[in-house]
Recover the amino acids of this structure.
């Protein structure tokens, strides 16, 4: 399946990765090669087969709905590129 | 390289217990070896102070008696594992400067067992690659090469782990395996590496790539070393809801070497067109060795094998695109410098464009595409259906009495760095024999079994029943004894 430049641009936008305009044709070509490889899956008869949810047949464990950890604001913020007054700081979100 | 670094885990444990060597001496020998092997690019963050402190503490425990098997053993830790206060970057620029405030469960368990961390090991960025060429640190290099020939890849993604163990810079290393990232590099450098059953080892604190496939495991010289190290890494962890609440058996005790009556399956679909004759021969030799050891050899069929790689290249990127959404320049790691008027969307887009390398960007975008409205069913759901069929192939042969499956580990010996880097699909084909095992959640082990005509190592893979790593290790042990691979690469670096 051929992926065009516009689709490549849309995917880059959805993935929140900036791709310069002049890089889009090469990107679209790479996608097309990978999608061409993936296309083989359409040969498989999957009629009546449930999509796999978990590779091991196990129930997820449950635990009491209680706080087990917390009060570590300083550690949580330690690696932030910009932290101020106990918060993560980001550019203005609303005008 | 001093002889101490060639002891292996079992050999070092025995020597430590006898008092023939101290953990500090072992650690110093490894630190010296690391200093002399910079050209391999294996260690990317060095932690000699931590190593010496841990070694001294280990010596105290050993002196007091009753120290666990991994006590005092110097290890390298793949950069994918979060280690408290030590850079843990997943070989990505986007995690530059990130020093976790917590310790992964695997490294916690290894440290509680008394192991020594020498430093962090190179890898492909976010474990996405088969040649260790996507790393922000630069390539890791295979200590093996054809005399006078070009530098070879140690494989990937656990390329630094493979290179370090093969060169005797550490006695064992942690690896992770999403599509073959322990087994392929182990085969390329002539060591043994085990991907455990999905859920055997906790994924907590391991940077996530594709959560339904990722599994951590040991990489070391021998099958016995793998058995010992796996014992220290495995076990239930409340912090990973997919970790299995099962007792961890004594894997080393399973190594009797007796495989009489075991049924070994040889899957016809793994005989690929254009497979090098040497790989064919290695596989046939390995089959003969297991037969001589008393196993019953049975031809089997895993009919959906051909579709494993394409299914993987839908599922793994889809999960990666979700997992890597967290790298947004807000909570940790790199944030792009912003221009006047840039808002939060520009911050995300510039940060991720600068922070992720080309292969990671490619996979995140492929994953985004296959999950996007209108394609979710055609690609993602179809791939998950094919995955169910691949698992059923294995379930069927195990139900028919097969105990383990023997295949080549890789379609070739280690290749030249730079040779396959420009063609993603060619690179993906490296995992053709290993990726089925991740899709089916099974344990798989790569055992060095011989050298090719150029003198480079080749490995065989054994695939076992779920949760039966002990039995799998024992079959691998029988193969190891018969193959008697004991070569070390000549030091050129």
């Amino acid at each position: 399946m051929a992926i065009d430049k516009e689709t490549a641009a849309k995917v880059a936008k959805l993935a929140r990765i900036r791709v310069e305009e002049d890089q889009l044709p090469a990107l679209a070509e790479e996608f097309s090669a990978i999608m061409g490889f993936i296309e083989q899956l359409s040969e498989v008869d999957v009629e009546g087969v449930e999509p796999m949810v978990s590779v091991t047949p196990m129930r997820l464990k449950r635990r009491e709905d209680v706080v087990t950890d917390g009060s570590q604001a300083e550690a949580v913020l330690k690696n932030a590129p910009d932290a101020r007054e106990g918060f993560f700081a980001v550019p203005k979100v609303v005008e | 390289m001093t002889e101490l670094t060639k002891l292996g885990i079992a050999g070092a444990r025995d020597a430590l217990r006898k008092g023939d060597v101290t953990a500090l001496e072992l650690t110093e020998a490894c630190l010296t070896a690391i200093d002399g092997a910079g050209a391999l690019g294996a260690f990317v963050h060095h932690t000699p102070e931590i190593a010496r402190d841990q070694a001294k503490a280990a010596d105290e425990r050993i002196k007091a008696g009753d120290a666990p098997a991994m006590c005092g053993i110097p290890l390298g830790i793949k950069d994918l594992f979060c280690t408290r206060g030590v850079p843990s970057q997943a070989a990505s620029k986007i995690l530059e400067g990130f020093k976790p405030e917590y310790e992964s469960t695997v490294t916690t368990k290894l440290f509680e067992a008394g192991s020594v961390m020498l430093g962090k090991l190179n890898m492909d960025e976010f474990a996405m690659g088969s040649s260790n060429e996507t790393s922000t640190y630069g390539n890791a290099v295979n200590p093996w090469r054809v005399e006078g020939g070009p530098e070879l890849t140690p494989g990937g993604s656990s390329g630094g782990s493979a290179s370090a163990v093969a060169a005797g810079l550490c006695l064992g290393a942690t690896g992770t395996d999403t599509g073959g990232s322990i087994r392929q590099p182990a085969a390329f450098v002539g060591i043994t590496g085990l991907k455990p059953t999905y859920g055997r080892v906790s994924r907590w604190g391991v940077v996530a790539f594709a959560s339904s496939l990722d599994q951590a495991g040991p990489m070391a010289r021998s099958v016995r070393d793998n058995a010992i190290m796996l014992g220290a890494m495995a076990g239930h962890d409340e912090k990973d809801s997919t970790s299995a609440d099962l007792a961890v058996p004594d894997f080393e005790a399973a190594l009797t070497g007796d495989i009489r009556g075991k049924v070994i399956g040889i899957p016809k679909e793994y005989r690929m067109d254009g497979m090098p004759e040497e790989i064919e021969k290695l596989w046939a030799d390995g089959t003969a060795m297991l037969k001589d050891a008393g196993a019953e050899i049975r031809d089997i069929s895993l009919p959906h094998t051909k579709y494993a790689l394409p299914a993987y290249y839908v599922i793994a990127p889809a999960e990666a695109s979700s997992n890597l959404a967290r790298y947004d320049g807000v909570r940790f790691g790199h944030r792009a410098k912003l221009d006047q008027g840039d808002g939060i969307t520009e911050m995300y887009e510039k940060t991720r464009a600068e922070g992720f390398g080309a292969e990671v960007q490619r996979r995140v975008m492929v994953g985004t595409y296959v999950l996007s409205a209108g394609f979710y069913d055609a690609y993602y759901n179809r791939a998950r259906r094919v995955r169910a069929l691949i698992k059923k192939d294995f379930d069927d042969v195990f139900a028919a009495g097969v105990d383990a499956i023997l295949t080549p580990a890789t379609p070739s010996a280690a290749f030249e760095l730079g040779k396959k880097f420009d063609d993603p699909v060619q690179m993906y084909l490296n995992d053709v024999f290993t990726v089925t095992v991740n899709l089916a959640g099974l344990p798989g082990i790569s055992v060095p079994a011989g050298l090719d005509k150029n003198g480079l190592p080749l490995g065989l893979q054994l695939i076992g029943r779920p949760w039966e790593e002990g039995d799998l290790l024992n079959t691998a042990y029988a193969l190891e004894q018969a193959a008697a691979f004991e070569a070390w690469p000549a030091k050129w670096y």
Chain B touches chain A through 73 residues (CB under 8 Å). The first helix of chain B runs from residue 8 to 18. The mean pLDDT of chain B is 96.
